Amino acid sequence: MTPSLQLDAQGRLSHLLTTEGLPRGLLERLLDRAEPYAKAAEAGFKKDPLLTGKTVVNLFFENSTRTRTTFELAATRLSADVINLHVQASSTAKGETLLDTLKTIEAMQADLFVIRHEASGAAHFFAQHAAPGVAILNAGDGRHAHPTQALLDAFTIRRNAPPREGRRHMRFDDLSVAIVGDIVHSRVARSNIHALTTLGVKDLRLIGPTTLMPSGIEQLAKGIRIEHDLMRGLDGVDVVILLRLQKERMVGAFLPSLGEFHRDYGLTAERLAQLKPDVLLMHPGPINRGVEIAGDVAYGARSVILEQVKHGVAVRMAVMAEILGTAQ
Ligand code: CP
Fold first, then answer.
1. Which domain holds residue 153?
2. Are residues 245 and 277 in the same domain?
3. DSSP 131
4. How far apart are CA 97 and CA 105, in angstroms?
5. In this structure, what are the phi and psi dihedrals at residue 177, rounded to the nearest 5 degrees?
């Protein structure tokens, strides 16, 4: 095994920065590791002593509801001490650099940083400069990567997709998955492309208008198909992952109007009715109701959007346990 920034010479996870290049066995191990945490929480047993004495620091330079909260819950349930740095009220507002922020909090003997930043590469930068033994988890960097979102998406698919006829368990290899919408701005799309194709998905369709489709993205992995017509792209799929239209990242005229996007690409009840009856409807959130998804299907019978949120806790526990913990 060649060491990389996120894998050591033995192939163990030291940081989690991207799903790109992670071996299938490691992805499956993280999903397996999340399962007992999810089951225990569902049975009402939420606390685990594994990370007692460890310190986890959440550094969110960009807004978040789901990721920040579930990382905090995950660390708390593993009995770590958790610090949430309020970035707007911190010395970064006085001009303190990312590096000095890292070094300052490291001096307080933090063991793990969870970082979200608008700059692609910010988590990578932290990992390059972190002291030995200090772990960095990427909670979303620019358009680049959101690896724990991809893991919780894969976990949600694994728990909900029915097995193909004749099989006892579902296999990612059997699935057709569509990712729909604002691919160009989406770190979730990139991380899902790497994770799902590594886990075995052979039919992965990216659907959206040409202005929101980065050129060459089909070369990221085998089996990617680009579609610009929504219903042709969704024909026969098992899983639909809708993406949030990232209005805050729209620096130019990517779209004529939100209404036109909804007309061409919005998932409505009428369109959902034309898909496979057991299709899974996913969205990383936050959703734009009436844009990429109609309000009445967001939490409808085929939606697993709130399960994705719930699974964020178990999956983030699994990642922290894998990096900082010893038990398995
Ligand atoms: N999915 C996701 O990253 O949501 P938040 O921005 O609320 O964390």
1. 147-308
2. yes
3. P
4. 12
5. -125, 135
CA of 179 to the centre of ligand 1 (A): 17
Q: Please report, for the domain that includes residue 237, its CATH number.
A: 3.40.50.1370
pTM of the model: 0.96
- Asked whether 125 and 98 are in contact (CB, 8 A), the reply is yes
Written as one letter, the residue type at 15 is H
Structure tokens at 184: 């160009």
pLDDT digits (tens, 9 = 90+) for 135-154: 999 999 999 999 999 999 99
| C-alpha span between 204 and 53 (Å, rounded) | 42
Q: Where are the alpha helices (DSSP H) in 78-146?
A: 98-106, 122-129
What is the total count of domains within the chain?
2
Q: What digits encode the pLDDT tens for the residues 202-235?
A: 999 999 999 999 999 999 998 899 999 999 999 9
Q: Average of pLDDT values for 106-110?
A: 95
Q: How far does the centroid of ligand 1 lie from the alpha carbon of residue 65, in Å?
A: 6
Q: Is 149 in the pocket of ligand 1 (CB under 6 A)?
A: yes
Residue 294: pLDDT band by 50, 70, 90 thresholds? very high
Residues 123-159 as b or e (16 or more Cβ within 10 Å = b):
bbbbbeebeeebbbbbbbbbbbbbbbbbbbbbbbbbb
Q: Is 286 in the pocket of ligand 1 (CB under 6 A)?
A: yes
What's the full length of the chain, in residues? 328
Task: Determine if ligand 1 sits within 6 Å of the CB of residue 266.
Answer: no
Given the structure tokens 């990312």, which residue do they identify? 98
* Same domain for 284 and 166: yes
β 280-282/203-207 pair status: unpaired
Same domain, 212 and 295: yes
Q: Which DSSP string corresponds to 292-328?
A: TB-HHHHTSTTB-HHHHHHHHHHHHHHHHHHHH----
Task: Let me know whether 127 and 185 are in one domain.
Answer: no
Q: Are 303 and 275 in contact (CB under 8 A)?
A: no
